[in-house]
């Protein structure tokens, strides 16, 4: 699903929303970030986005962009991704201190609620009214954008943090 990009941020794509939470759970087990946000902040922000697609987001901003550029912006987001540092609404920026465990659970619940939701979806602040399929694509691209800044630890790096007694697994049988 993900490969390193320029030794930092990785290229990450999701073909299905069902791939998001396994990726998040893997990152929660061991990761490092190469962007400004922690994994907890990413998960909280993504959870708010999923919930906003069902309960509504602030539409008072970006009226001009939504009216005149929404198709071009949507096409760009879906084909080229979201530019780093771009924000739709600064109020969706998470606080500096976010408990990662709680944020992971919040994201899992939001994704599940979205997947189970069979009602109408709300307007996107930039892209306007979207079909369910387009909302799914937007969520997949949005998740990939943020999670691409979290790099999973390699098994050997992760194993070294687990304490002693794992050397036989990491070093071909020598218990170091």
Q: Explain this structure to me?
A:
The strands form two sheets. A two-stranded antiparallel sheet has the order 1-2. It is mainly α and 176 residues long. The protein has seven helices and four strands; from the N terminus they run ββαβααααβαα. Helix 2 runs parallel beside helix 4 (100-116). It is globular.
Oligomeric grouping of the chains: single chain
Runs in which pLDDT lies below 50 for 5 or more consecutive residues are: 2-6, 155-176
**Overall geometry:** globular
Mean pLDDT: 83
Radius of gyration in whole Å, from Cα?
Answer: 18 Å
Order of helices and strands: EEHEHHHHEHH
Sketch the major β-sheet.
2 strands, antiparallel
Q: Give the terminus-to-terminus CA distance.
A: 32 Å
Helical stretch tally: 7
The strands making up the biggest β-sheet line up spatially as: 1-2
Q: How much helical structure, as a percent, in the residues? A: 40-55%
Question: Could you give a short description of this structure?
Answer:
This protein has 176 residues and is mainly alpha-helical. The chain contains seven helices and four strands; from the N terminus they run ββαβααααβαα. Strands 1-2 form a two-stranded antiparallel sheet.
What's the helix and strand layout?
Blueprint: E1 2-4, E2 10-12, H1 20-29, E3 31-33, H2 39-55, H3 63-80, H4 100-116, H5 132-147, E4 150-152, H6 155-160, H7 167-170
Antiparallel strand pairs: 1-2, 3-4
């Amino acid at each position: 699903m993900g490969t390193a990009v320029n030794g930092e941020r990785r290229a990450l794509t999701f073909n299905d929303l069902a791939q998001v939470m396994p990726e998040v759970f893997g990152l929660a087990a061991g990761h490092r970030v190469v962007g400004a946000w922690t994994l907890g902040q990413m998960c909280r922000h993504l959870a708010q986005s999923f919930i906003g697609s069902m309960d509504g987001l602030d539409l008072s901003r970006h009226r001009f962009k939504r009216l005149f550029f929404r198709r071009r912006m949507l096409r760009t987001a879906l084909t080229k991704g979201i530019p780093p540092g771009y924000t739709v609404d600064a109020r969706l920026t998470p606080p500096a201190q976010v408990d990662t465990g709680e944020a992971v659970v919040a994201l899992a619940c939001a994704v599940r609620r979205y997947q189970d939701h069979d009602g109408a979806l709300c307007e996107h602040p930039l892209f306007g009214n979207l079909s369910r399929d387009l909302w799914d694509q937007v969520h997949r691209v949005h998740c990939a954008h943020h999670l691409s800044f979290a790099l999973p630890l390699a098994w050997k790096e992760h194993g070294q943090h687990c304490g002693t007694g794992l050397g036989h697994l990491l070093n071909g049988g020598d218990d170091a």
